[in-house]
Design goal:
rod-shaped; mainly alpha; 194 residues
């Protein structure tokens, strides 16, 4: 009977399995990077109906408004239009994350470095608007409704980074959409009062 020159013929199986796992991981990670490059976050073509805020519709001139009042109303229109865009982007990135169309780091960086700073700048614009004397009370209401939008946007980022399964982020997104709707209602009321 011939003697087996290798008394442990299975000792090469474990190293082969490890090499195979490393190779598979390398290929898988590279395919994720290709997918992220093909789906950049700046593409916000996803239609979102959760919180589409209609921009305030103001005629170029309303009644006998003086230029200062008309300039203020024009500011409200611009602020409302910008808020609509910000809201759509916020809902789009959250929907894309829920559908795993973007990587975690891409969604986090977009919220942290792009969208949330623009929302904070928008709130600063609301607070810094030149307000005619007859609109001071209404504009104070707008400022009070703008702040929670930024607070909720920060909470969405915190929720994205939370260890739960998305409950905190979804709750913050609902608060965000509620705050956006409240601001839009207040802005529409200000225009109606003109």
């Amino acid at each position: 009977m011939a003697r087996n020159p290798d008394p442990k013929p299975g000792r090469w199986i474990l190293p082969l399995i490890i090499v195979g796992m490393v190779a598979f991981t390398y290929v898988f990670v590279n395919s994720l990077e290709d997918t992220a490059a093909a789906n950049p976050v700046t593409n916000t073509s996803t239609t979102v109906t959760t919180s589409d805020i209609e921009p305030i519709d103001v005629e170029p001139t309303i009644g006998e408004n003086d230029p200062g009042v008309q300039a203020y109303l024009d500011q409200l229109v611009a602020l409302s239009t910008d808020l609509n865009t910000l809201s759509q982007e916020m809902n789009s990135i959250n929907e894309r994350w829920d559908n795993r169309e973007v990587e975690f780091a891409t969604a986090r960086d977009f919220l942290r470095d792009d969208l949330n700073p623009r929302i904070a700048q928008w709130v600063t614009r609301v607070e810094g608007a030149e307000v005619p004397a007859e609109f001071v009370d209404q504009h104070t209401n707008l400022i009070n409704n703008a702040g929670p939008i930024s607070v909720a946007a920060v909470a969405i980022l915190d929720g994205l980074e939370a260890p739960d399964t998305g409950e905190a982020r979804r709750a913050a997104l609902e608060q965000f959409n509620t705050a956006v709707a409240a601001y839009a209602d207040a802005a529409s009321a200000s225009v109606a009062d003109s």
